[in-house]
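Example record for the data management plan.
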Amino acid sequence: MSLRKATLSQQIFFSMIGLISLALLTVTVFNITQIKNDTTKYNEERLSRKDRAVAKSIEAIINLGSRYNVDLHTAFKPILEDVGYIHKLKINIYSLQGKFIWSSDTTLINDSFIKKPIPNNIIQQCFASREKKIKYEKGKYFGTYRILFQDNNIKKLTS
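Corresponding structural encoding:
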């Protein structure tokens, strides 16, 4: 039966079903888009909180090492694996000169890409950024370089 041959009440009925279906489709698309945006925003905030938690954990290790005049390699070695395990991350520590110090994943310690020093221009980009971090891609690895510790001389230079 075509819509033209239908009675007026049938035409109104089919029009209402079409209108309601269109409204439900519009609301569904809007809700799916909103939920996707909210989920993305939540995950970004969650990763940001995790990033801050990892940074604070590592800063505590650095402060502990500097308080007791312990070499950073010695301070990081026993604790960094635990921090990486707790946060489910692979964390690599480099000095401010770009020299590799230690990794939370002992399988990465023998990787030439990881042990390769960070170029000075990347370190300067980190210092220049407002958040003191930049995203990177190093060989097959990608992540974030972040400056966590600055001694007093460096703070004077960057202030």
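Summary line stored alongside the record: Confidence is low (pLDDT under 50) at residues 152-159.
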